[in-house]
Every structure is written in structure tokens, then in C-alpha cells.
Amino acid sequence: MARTNVAVSTPVESSTVTISGINSAAQISVTGGEYSINNAAYTSANGTVNNGQQVAVRVTSSSAANTAVSATLTVGGVNAVFSVTTAAVTSGEPLPIGSQNWSMFGHDYANTRASKDETIGATHVANLRVAHRVPGAGVSSTPAVADGVVYFSDYAGWLKAVNAETGADIWATRLQNSMLTPSPFVAGDSVYIAGDNSNVYSVERATGKLRWTSKIETTPYNRIWSSPVVVGDTLLIGAASYQVFFAATPLFRGSVVALNAANGEEKWRLSVCPPESCGGGVSVWSSVAVDPELKLAYIGTGQAYFTPAGPYSDALLAINYETGALVWHHQITANDVYTINGGTLDRDVGAAPNLFEATVNGTVRKLVGVGDKGGHYTVVDRVTGERVWQRTVDPRTPSGSPIGGVMGTPTVANGRIYFTNNTSTVGTGRFDARPGTSSAFALDAATGDVVWSLNLLAGSFSGNTVANGLLYFITWDGQLRVVDATNGTLLHSMPVGAQVGSYDTAAEGFPNGSTSGPVVSNGRIYAGYGWTWGANVAGGLAILESDAVPPPLRWTASCPADFTPKDGLNSGFMSDGYSRSFRILPATDGDGPRPVFVSLTGTAEMETDFMRATFIDRLPAKGFTVISPVRICAANGNNSVCGSGTVTTQDGRTWEPWFDGVAQGNVAQYQDAGTDVRFFERMVKCAATRYEIDQTRIYIGGISAGGTATNRALTFSSGFFAGGAPASGEWYRTDGVPITTENVGDAIIDGRVAPRPLDRSAEALQPSINIVLWGGATDKWYLNGATGPLIANYNPSTKLAANYFASQSNVVTVSCTHDLNYLPPIGGHLWPRSQAITEWVATTLASHPKGTPRDAFSLPLTPEGLTCVLGSFQDH
């Protein structure tokens, strides 16, 4: 088995294989990766497997482009190899799916903090601007960006998820009332975070619902600054303490802790200040780097608080992450004992280590390097801990200081190591202290030679980032600095907060300052702002854009556990706690990734009958993969009709077939896309694990309740869908005007089907193409056949939808009226029963992939029975 063109430093799973032909339990082992039996947690330990069980292998791809790694699985003496090859670097071509994700503090297990994004170049940085701001409490974390969602934590104890393109809220969970300063780790269907009071949390990725909490330290003033990192079923994190500021009993002794990622139970604990050799202290502020091949986790430690300092203080440790055994340690500063009340140096290794390879004396070496507050960058052999080189960049004697030296995690790319070194301290007290000056450096990764340096009039706590030949970091005053990574020229500076940050006495902090590490992903930059030495401070998340147009989001194909998509009916698909079903009609014509049409039936037809009557089931012969979800009220696609009614539950359902309009009183749901829209996205992403899907051509369309659900998907999820065709869909206007009032003109009105309040800005929706279908004067629905009373009038509804779409500068809006009507009571309330019209709608949508400029669209000739105009309707 083999996978090619995958993202670097990414865990990749093989297809499952069913064990057969053995009569009793057989030995199973793996080298170079991990295996899972029957979807249990991945492991590299030897075990046994039985006939009929399913086995999968997982390998972490190389950190280098166009490089293969492999794992060998052995079952009963029979070997099988699973290889994974990373994509070649092809400037200007779409990056491999998933490569734009930044799902953990250091971007990848190697903590390279190197983005593959090539959108923003040196010519664009002068035009950087804050496009969206998500205000709240201060954000010190490096945000995590995965599949179009940004996850970040703040000083008020919130973990939040927002849309990566717009900053719109997806969910927010307040896990505690105090700081969550580390960075989230996103994996599978979970998000992990930690913070003050030494609490580690796991939440559901889709909803933010808490799964488990684990407290790893109980001594007074305990806290976590280390960001969680998950490897297989193990979460790795460091324990720290503010006993450096406040003496207390019992005495704190630092440790590195491993938790079971599934339930938070402790697996092992390694003390870095054992009583027999250490007087107390040694906080672990650092976060791990991981080498999955060596099964080693690398992490830095702080100074001791009481003598003796011990051998593990101010050190770089290598730990077997499966057992917790210390493999080697390399102490950088010995005998460092310090608290705020006095001591020697305070030369923590608080930055996270970086893993990289370099040619040293003609030999390619696997290396690990780390910066420390003493102003050193130290590089050692990854296997043995033997020092290879050390570069002291701090000019003072002795070098470094309590908030000096290398505090922000460096970034590694193209044979160079980039970081900042703080060289002075300003401030009159503990709350206003900050690094006054600093220098940015580029070192040769093989020798430690200084390639260039740049002096700055502000210091930095920020993690560093490299993308497309540019170095990014943020100084304490909240200014994003953009430097030419080749020569050290400062190209641009700008605040990520509302203004350049300064100390606010009343707030006891820096509301517009920043300690956050910037993330460059998919043509945008994400950074937090607001920091304090105290308890809380205002701040938020900034989303920056330039004049370089961000490319369409490229998400990672994935399915729920134990689910494999197939042709035809797929059942048992878990989404938001519901067991859902959908049908897949794969494309039968065309090569390569195919466009997708998501087909939504209305109230009175089974999805298969709707596709057959409208010829949507013929689209696969035109090169489309058709995916048809089953209404939640239809059991496995077997119910032909769903009952209607109003259900004012918290899920926001107001019409039985789909969750297509939030009830008027459910204010908490006004900005929630709802379970159906999330289900539509998830089923497409799952289908993409088996079928080649063009992520820039995913369209959705349906009739009546299905048209209403289409309106909801197009307004809530324009970043995912490239467009759609709502036919006779509701808008559910909220202004109280009777449905018999048909002349809405050019009005744009809030509707329960769309986010509320409705964003009326010209760029509220992402680039897309929407074809709104109306069945003419008889497109109405009556409770008792054609005699009434009237319960739905699609004249104002279709016009209101078209008005809003036409107001969007990035959206091609086509408004179409058809005359293929039936006798009452159906009249014009149907998707046209015309193969020519259905194919015209689908191919017109597919002619405008996501990201295509609106002005590039030209309206093609329409088939008989259909009249269309660009923009909103002119006939009603």
C-alpha cells in the first residue's frame, strides 16, 4: 500500500485490511509506524491479532518535500509495507490537501513553525491589514487553523472556534474562569487545551462540548504554559508553577506528564526535580517536539527554585514517550537557582525545541536545537544528546536575563534557524516589565554561523514563523514584524491590536500588546493580542489579509470512526449525535477530481424519487458525483413522506425535513449553521476519502424545504460550497410582513434561514455562484390543496434570497423562472422536470469554480422553459 502527494509532517492512515487465513491468534508488530486493530487506539507495541479483525497502519510523513517514509507491519511472520511520499515543491500549483493546516503550537511534530503557504510575498506585505477582528480577552496562544476553522484560547478561560475566512463564531466554551494561555492541539474530532490551575481539557471539535478534564499538578500556584501535543493515544505536556514568584508549601517539583488522550487518565510522569538531586522548582514551560521514528519527545526545562539545581534544570530532555523513560539529558546552564526574591541567573529553556536535519562534516545528521534565556541556541544529536554546536547571540556578560535571551520558539526552514533574542528590560515593576530591545537572527543550521542579524527597539515573546521567504514575529507592543528571510531586511511593521501596544496601568497589562505567535495559512495571517503578567486583560484574535487573494480552502478528507463510504446508501453516519444516512452516485465520466452536486429533496418526496424525477440521477454521466443526504425524519431512506410541524427545540428545527430555519426565540442559535449544514459538509468530506472530489466545485441544490436548506448552507457555509441552486426555497423573513405581500423590491431582510443579524457588508459571503429558481405565479403551497389557506408563498422568498446574493460582490447571482408547471395544488412549486434544465443548472454552476472572479462569468443560453437574468429577479 502507498500514498503519494501528501502534506509534510502529517499522520497518514492506511486503508483497513481484514485478517484472514489464520486459525488462532497471531503475533503482530510494526516498525516505522503504528497500527490499530478494529479502530482501537494506535500503538507500536507488539501484540496479537485474530482472524476477522481489521488492521490499519499509521505513518507520519516526512518533514521534507518529495520524500518517502514507510512502516512494515508483520502478522504471523508475513510482512506488508505501507509507504507515504510527500508532495514535491511545485510553486504556483495547489498545495496538497491538509498542508495549509496549522493544527498545533509548532505547526508540526518537529516544531518547524514553517508554513507552506505561498500566497503572501514580499510585494504584498505593505498592504497587510486587519480584515477581521474577534474581540474578547487577551490571546497569548498560537492559534490552531484546521480545515477552515481557527481554534484559540484566552485569558478569561474561553476556548473558541471561528470561521478562518470571516472570523464568524462557530462555538465558544468557557472551560474555566482563569488563563488558558497555551495553544490548542487539533486532532481527529477533538481539540485539546490546558492552562491555569494545571487543568488539561479535551473537547468535541464540532461543538466545543467538554469530553474530559485532568488536573496534572496540585501544589499551590500551579499552572500550565506548555502546549499539549498528542502522539497516537498519548498527550504530552509539562507542569509549571508560579512559586517562582510566590513561595509556598508543599513545594512544587516540575514534571513532564503523559495522559491517555481518550480519557485524560495519567499514563506516566517524569520528575525533572527529584528530591535526591534537586531542591525544588524546575518548571516546564516548554512544549514537546516529537520524533515518531525514534519514539522520542524533546522538551526544555526551567531553573530550580531552591538549591541544589539538579542535573535536569535548564536542560533539554529526550524522553521515550511510550514509557516515560528519560533517554538522555543535555544541561545548558548548570547550578541555576532563582526566584523573584533572589538567585543567580534565571536562564530557563522555555522555548520549544526544533527538529531538523543538516549536513555536518559531510554527514547528514538528525538534530534537535533549542533556544534559552541565556541567549544561546544549542544543537545536539537527536539520538545521543551529544552537542554538535552552540551559538551565543546575547551580547551581555553573563549573557541573558530573566526576560531576556531566546524566549519565543524559533522557526526552521531551508537550512536556517530564525529567532529573536531579547537584550534589555524596561519597566518599573512586575506588571509593566517587558523586553526593551532585541535582535532577530538567522543561523546556519549546520554550523551555527550567523547569516544575518537585525536590531529592533522592542523585544519579543512571540513564536517565530517562516512562509514564502518571509519571517514573521510579533514584538511585545503588538507589532507584527515581517522580515526578508534571505537577508534580514525589515519589510513591514503594523499592530495586530487596535493600535501599537503600551502598558495600561488600570488594566495591569497590555491590551494591544502581543505575545502570540503568528500563523500563516491559506493566504491569511492569524495572531492574538492582549497580554498581562496578572490575571486577565482585554484582547482578541486578528485575521490579516493583503492584496494577494487567498486561495480557496483545501480541507482534509475524513470520516467518523468505523465508517467507510460506498456506492449507494450509506447509513449509520454519526453527526452531532444523530445517526444519518446519505446516498452516493459516483461520477461515471471524466478523469481526476470531479465536481459534486449535493441533492436535497423537499417534504413530500423520497430522495431517490426526487433525483429520478428531476434527472439529477443522470448527472454522474456528465461527470458529477451526486451525494444525496436523507432527511432526518426518514429512516435510512425508507420513508416516502415526512410529517411537518414546528419544533422549537434548541437544535433550531422549524420544519421537519431539514433543520432549515432557527425558531424566532432561539437567540443562541442565530449564528449556528445547524446540524444539517454540518452534516452536509461532513458527508462530502467523508466521501472524499474514497472518491476523487474537486474541492473548488462543490455545489448544493434542492426543492422547497431542500431549497430552504440550500439557502442556509449558502449563507452559513459559503467558504465550503462553491455555490448552489435553491429552488423555491424559503427565506423565513422576520419583519412580520404577511406572506401575501409579494412586492419586496430590492429589500434585503433578515431571515430565519440565514445568520442573524444578517451581515449586509458587500463581502460577507465567499466567492460562489448561486442560481435561484422560481416556479412563477403558481409557486405557492396551500394547506388544503389549491383551496387554501396559503401557508407558503415563494414569490417573496425567492426574491429576498436573490436580492441578498446579488448584493454580494464575490457572488455570481443568476435568477431563473421556469414555466414547467403541474396542475394544482403543485403548480410551479417543483424543481423543473427537465433533463435539459437540470444539466444546464449543474454545468453552469461547475463552469465557475470557487475563487473564479465574478466578472469572469458569462451567462450561457438557457434551455426551453427557463428564463434567467444576471442579478436578482426582474419579473417579481
Please outline the helices and strands:
Elements: E1 2-6, E2 11-13, E3 17-18, E4 26-31, E5 34-37, E6 47-49, E7 54-60, E8 68-75, E9 78-86, E10 114-115, E11 129-137, E12 144-146, E13 149-153, E14 158-163, E15 169-174, E16 185-187, E17 190-194, E18 199-204, E19 210-215, E20 222-223, E21 229-231, E22 234-241, E23 255-260, E24 266-271, E25 289-291, E26 296-300, E27 315-320, E28 326-331, E29 338-339, E30 342-343, E31 354-360, E32 363-371, E33 376-381, E34 387-392, E35 411-413, E36 416-422, E37 425-426, E38 434-435, E39 438-444, E40 450-456, E41 465-467, E42 470-474, E43 479-484, E44 490-495, E45 519-521, E46 524-529, E47 538-545, E48 568-575, E49 578-585, E50 594-600, H1 607-614, E51 625-629, H2 675-687, E52 693-703, H3 705-716, E53 723-727, E54 768-774, E55 780-782, E56 790-793, H4 794-806, E57 811-818, H5 835-846, E58 866-870
Parallel strand pairs: 1-9, 10-41, 50-51, 50-52, 52-53, 53-54, 54-57
Antiparallel strand pairs: 2-7, 3-7, 4-6, 4-8, 5-7, 8-9, 11-47, 12-13, 13-14, 14-15, 16-17, 17-18, 18-19, 20-22, 21-22, 22-23, 23-24, 25-26, 26-27, 27-28, 29-30, 31-32, 32-33, 33-34, 35-36, 36-39, 37-38, 39-40, 41-42, 42-43, 43-44, 45-46, 46-47, 48-49, 49-51, 55-56, 57-58
Percentage of residues in helical conformation: under 10%
Low-confidence stretches: 88-93, 634-641, 644-655
- Number of strand elements: 58
Beta-strand content bin:
35-45%
Major sheet: order of its strands? Answer: 48-49-51-50-52-53-54-57-58
From the N-terminal CA to the C-terminal CA, the straight-line distance is: 58 Å
Which structural class do the helices and strands define?
mainly beta
Question: What is the overall number of helices?
Answer: 5
Main pleated sheet: 9 strands, mixed
Provide the residue-averaged pLDDT.
Answer: 90
Please give the radius of gyration in angstroms: 29 Å
Estimate the global geometry from the Cα principal axes. globular
